[in-house]
Design goal:
It is a single chain. This protein is α/β, with parallel strands linked by helices. The chain has one domain. The protein contains four helices and three strands, in the order αβαβαβα.
Length: about 110
């Protein structure tokens, strides 16, 4: 597991008591969609805490995909699972699909 993947694990250990580990400060944090609900305060409080720590949060595709690169949120099914209130970014290889679907969701 790389350093960027250990950041959420450190938060899992300390986030419930309100501590944002130093590793979570001033960085890009990619959260696998299949682990997001393990993060204390997901999505709103978690994203707010990371922004206050100077970090950007992106939701990405599931951990464990066969790609060497982080998988993206690339299907409508994955997008439907993203909370409407999520204030972070979406890591994707299908910006055309994501932009269209998110725009439609915001008008519902």
């Amino acid at each position: 597991m790389g350093a960027e993947e250990s950041i959420p694990l450190r938060y899992v250990a300390y986030g419930w008591i309100g501590i944002v580990p130093q590793a979570c400060h001033n960085t890009l944090i990619l959260i696998p969609e299949n682990y997001a609900t393990l993060l204390w305060g997901w999505p709103n409080r978690f994203v707010e805490r990371m922004h206050l720590a100077g970090s950007e949060v992106y939701l990405r595709g599931p951990y464990g995909s066969k790609s060497h690169f982080p998988a993206g949120i690339d299907t409508v099914e994955q997008l439907k699972a993203v909370p409407k209130s999520f204030a972070g970014g979406i890591w994707t290889d299908r910006i055309d699909l994501v932009a269209t679907h998110r725009r439609m969701m915001s008008t519902d």
